[in-house]
Amino acid sequence: MDLLELEKLLTAYQSGELDKAEAAKRIKNLHYEDLGYARVDHSRSTRQGFPEVVFGAGKTREQVVGIVERLIRHSPNVLVTHTDEGTFGEVRNIVTEAEWHETARLIKIQRDNTERGVGEIVVVTAGTSDIPVAEEAALTAEAMGNRVKRVWDVGVAGIHRVLAERSLLQQARVAIVAAGMEGALPSVVGGLVSVPVIAVPTSIGYGASFGGVAALLGMLNSCASNVTVVNIDNGFGAGFVASLINRKWEPGADGRSVKTPGELEMFE
């Protein structure tokens, strides 16, 4: 439950702006809101650092719109992944700030542009065909308040291309590397940098790539110790984890990490 929203509700009740029944209803909705087909988690940001993200695949347009409509009442930034342009049109009818990103098949609503990262996140692809997955990662990281650099098409078949970007890679706080085929590029990048590398296997490749399984296994067996791996085509997951690694934190009085003042002001 978002503590700032709770304080606002209690203040409104105390001042007489809300009666007891309405205050109780709104407090309940701060936790989650049951729409019948979905239970919208309004406390996700407090627990995990970013509001619930809508996975569009398998949902009707009406369901996506209904979830987004509830989320934007509590969250300035909302993402819908794995969706289509028709759904974007419906979402834009209720949120004019919504943006459609065709390459990543992603809807982004970004009303808070506070920078929350310590440094830059660099997103790298082995080939041009990996860009849709990498762009999903980049847009996710940007929505979470990070500065992102993109480096496309620097796979190991032309190793000089990634070596030419060594300086940029070494300045990053986190690297995300998307690759299909045999999935070798994350290991190469891992050997060049001293920061976490999040490897994203993509489903790009010929028959024996088994829809990304070959790249996944290659990345899991990387000999570069700073490489970790997310699921096949999971650009969103890579962008999310990279954002948490890059997040500015301040130690709390009890020794635990707390959000920065900018994050605490996010929902004011």
Explain the overall architecture.
By secondary structure, the protein is an alpha/beta fold. It has helices spanning 3-15, 20-31, 44-48, 61-71, 85-94, 131-143, 159-163, 166-171, 185-192, 213-220, 235-246, 261-264; strands spanning 32-34, 39-41, 54-55, 77-81, 99-101, 106-110, 120-125, 147-151, 174-179, 197-201, 227-229, 250-251, 257-258.
What is the compact description of this entry?
40% of the residues lie in helices and 19% in strands. It is α/β, with parallel strands linked by helices and 268 residues long.
Helix content: 25-40%
Cα shape: elongated
- Oligomeric form: single chain
Average pLDDT rating: 86
Largest β sheet strand count, sense and barrel closure: 5 strands, parallel
Tally of helical runs: 12
Question: What's the helix-strand series?
Answer: HHEEHEHEHEEEHEHHEHEHEHEEH
Stretches where pLDDT is under 50 for at least 5 consecutive residues are: 252-258, 260-268
Distance between the termini: 14 Å
Strand order of the largest sheet: 8-7-9-10-11
Q: What is the radius of gyration?
A: 20 Å
The proportion of strand residues reads 15-25%
Structural class of the secondary elements?
A: alpha/beta
Count of distinct strands: 13
